[in-house]
Predict the structure.
Amino acid sequence: MNEIENIQPDATGSAEETPLLEVRGLSVVFDTPEGSVKVVDNVDLKVSAGRTLGLVGESGSGKSVTCLAALRLLAERGRVTSGEVLFEGKDLLKASEGEMEALRGCKIAMIFQDPMVSLNPVRTIGWQITESLHLHKNLSKSAAKSRTLELLDLVGIPEPKTRYGEYPHQFSGGMSQRAMIAMAIACEPKLLIADEPTTALDVTIQAQILELLSDLKKDLGMALILITHDLGVIAEAADDVAVMYAGRIVEEAPVLDLFDNPLHHYTKGLLNSLPRVDRKVERLSAIAGAAPPPHEFVEGCRFEPRCGHCNDNCTGVRPEFQQVSATRRVACIHPVTTP
Amino acid sequence: MNKSLTEKPEILLETKDLVRYFTGPRTSLFGKRRVAHAVNGVSLELRKGETLGLVGESGCAKSTLGLLILNLLQPTSGTVTFLGKDVTNLDKKEWRRMRSEMQLVFQNPLGALNPRLTIGSQIREPLDIHDVGEPESRHDKVLEMIESVSLPEHLLERYPHQLSGGQQQRVVIARALINRPKLVVCDESVSALDVSVQAQVINLLVDLQKKLGLTYLFITHDLSIVRHISSRIAVMYLGRIVELADSEDLLENPMHPYTKALIAAVPVPDPRARKSRATISGEPPSPFNLPAGCAFNARCPHADEKCRTELPEFRQTSEEHMVACHHAEKLA
């Protein structure tokens, strides 16, 4: 534990390039009949061009809300109470609605878990993809169509010419997700946010979609934020990982470091509780209890009731981030010690 | 595996050539109805005290098979024998008695619980319905049950929406087990739970199995869970079992190309084990339009003429390993 000390107050040295997207101190409050609840609490994130940031957490940890808030897509009852979202140096939270509209679907695109809900059932797939080309790129009808056919081919939809005129119900789950991806990358975005993009899909299809996303990221030089609850997907696709628990980031690390040597007890517990396909585990070591619902969030460490390593110091005090190395941070007073 | 060499395992339930078709919508106003071949001749046995994992992708009819086994759905043809009796042909009275011997735990606990009844009365309900024991003693049984699923007693007065997802699933399990069934079909029972809670419920199911001598049919799409919980695994593709073996044997030495692709596709929580996981392309064909020959032939990298014309027989390749592939030995 001794070797983990506050080495540097700020590890983002000037040598590192400025990130494409940087979220600083973002807090989101939802107004409910029972009062206001802070579902996202002082979250920092950053992702650079060509990198994949994996945002992992259990349901209700605030990972989707963080990204929706960053794009100013929160529902009526949610509001950002503090923080800034810098995209190419510009604070999105201060941008006008017109500027945001020009940005969304163009420089920043997002895909969701259930493609069937995101697609318009009464329009053809082709129409829906050309729509964003019309809106953002001002392409002529024929140019937009030929670009759409290219895109369908790029995301691996067979027979693009036939599929162009078909409706979403004629597409399978995997094919709809491919169509969603085609739509998202139509304007060659700099940042793609994928919110549980493979959760609704079968594993063989999931493998295809993850491969597609990683190829596209390379080819287009995009930054990718991959939101998921699945540590397997994180291990497969992410470069850097941020672990969220109960509205806060609890640990940040490059993917190898995180799996080799998790520092937060929650991360460690999560990794230990996974059944594995590649080896036999005699008994799963589950984390006792369950994550608190947002209206029971406390100021102190929110993992404390489930943590086997806490003491009196953990109660009531928010665990500040400890900068463990240039690329690693953990929000725990007694982080996991290296063996 | 060793046990089977010395003594024959006791069979709790057996299906023979189980077939179930569903009719779809008409193709046109006066057109014929299309027929979906959901379950296409499944012969399985469930051994007493084992956990048989049934894995497959969505649409392969694994849930339909679960319903057929519980006689909650009538088969088009074939039989289900439970404790030596054909359950598809029981009279009402007998079936009513037998029904409490087999239980089902679904994926979504909130959908399985009545929102207007307290937890206590829902766990007690099966005792009242099947008139088990004296009414006064039933409350004790409920207390005993809620303790064995590790829930605090004060939850008995609560309503389902006041519980977390993991707690709700424990209640469903308690209710399913209160009549001491012999067989429990778990249909994606832990899939909706968060990872940390999922591990708790899996451990609970394992403990209860040991304590009560249960037999599980564990239906899931998740191979990692199945490896952990099952003694044997059956892999299903488009209404047929394509491979069946001891868990370790199946995962370490898969013989069917589909099983291999399925195992390869599961992301492993280890960034050092990164590799190309998309070993097969395409998607399963529609059950409305089954291909000739092997159902997997269009996606299979090893398919030849024989696979496109001739249905592979589900055959035994060793004592405890069965596979439905023409080229299984060549590929192993």
The first helix of chain A runs from residue 63 to 70. Chain A has eleven helices and twelve strands. The CA atoms of residues 288 and 306 of chain A lie 6 Å apart.
